Amino acid sequence: MAPHVHRTPVFTSAFVDGRTGARVVFKAENLQKVGAFKFRGACNAVFSLGDDEARRGVLTHSSGNHAQAVALAARVRGVPAWVVMPEGAPAVKVAAVEGYGARIVRCAPTLAAREATAAEVQRETGAAFVHPYDDARVVAGQATAAMELLEQAGPLDVLLAPVGGGGLLGGTALAAAYFAPGTRVVGAEPAAADDAARSFHGGVLVPADNPRTVADGLRTSLGALNFAVLRRYVADVVTVGEDEIVAAMRHVWERMKLVIEPSSAVPVAALLSGRLDVEGRRVGVILSGGNVDLDHLPWFR
């Protein structure tokens, strides 16, 4: 992966430090290629394929950032890509996937439809399937964001990441366990899409039930592989409300001058809303992405 991904910068915010009483550092994956951390996992997965397998191309299903990531990773490697995208996927992300040269196959906006359509495309093409989050190669790639943050920022008491399918949080937890075992890893999730929190606290994997949240990147059900990682290496999963997510996103835009999407704002909301007591601690936050439909900003709803 190293020749292909950006080593994204780290930012601080006097505003956030003042609100929380902590020293907070932000890993700006909104400045990663394709505008999201997803390129790390997709790049690792695509470049892990043997030459014979890669020649047949790669395939995934995704509503947005992973779709773009697989499309670009395939283009960089010089192999074809097929992406199954549900109707209603954000227009900015559909346009980006097309721009990277992938062939888009549309389907109904349900997980079952995405999986069935992807299976059909795989039968027709023989392409290698790269799961958006429940894939060890993808999780290992996502782990490099936290690994870099720990190298750039030094020791952290707490490390926060958003959680949808769990690839980023799982990778973050694994990186912390290996490189900084004293760091407490916490996931943040919309209360309107809280399957990961319910699964984590209940000890049983609970699927998402048609979640409706402004954080479109976190509507996915937690994956089985990542659930096992979370149970072993994550300290807690907290939830935040929709208004808190939108307010946190706006704060980052206005105070830090960073364009982040709602999913990125979820862990920021957890800090600003006081869900976690971090006073006097060093805290890291993974800002997961910045792909925003500028015609539908959430504070204009």
Architecture of the largest domain, according to CATH?
A: 3-Layer(aba) Sandwich
How many β-strands, per DSSP?
10
* N-C termini distance: 39 Å
Elements, N to C (H/E)? EHEHHEHEHEHEHEHEHHEHHE
Query: What is the CA-based Rg, rounded?
Result: 18 Å
Q: Report the oligomer.
A: single chain
Q: How much of the sequence is in beta strands? A: 15-25%
Q: Which term fits the overall shape?
A: globular
Average pLDDT for all residues: 94
Q: How many helices? A: 12
Task: Please identify the structural class as seen in this structure.
Answer: alpha/beta
The name CATH uses for the topology of the largest domain is Rossmann fold
Q: Flag low-confidence runs.
A: none
Characterize the largest beta sheet: strand count, sense, and whether it forms a barrel.
Answer: 6 strands, mixed
Number of domains: 2
Q: Would you state the CATH class of the largest domain?
A: Alpha Beta
The share of residues in helices is 40-55%
- Give the spatial strand order of the biggest sheet: 1-2-10-7-8-9
Description:
- The protein has about 300 residues and is an alpha/beta fold.
- It has 2 domains: about 10-35 and about 135-300, Rossmann fold, CATH 3.40.50; about 40-130, 3-Layer(aba) Sandwich (Rossmann fold).
- It has helices at about 15-20, 40-50, 50-55, 65-75, 90-100, 110-125, 135-155, 165-180, 195-200, 225-235, 240-255, 260-270, and strands spanning about 10, 25-30, 60, 80-85, 105, 130, 160, 185-190, 235-240, 280-285.
- The strands form 2 sheets. Strands 1-2-10-7-8-9 form a 6-stranded mixed beta sheet, with helices on both faces. It has a 4-stranded parallel beta sheet with strand order 5-4-3-6, with helices on both faces.
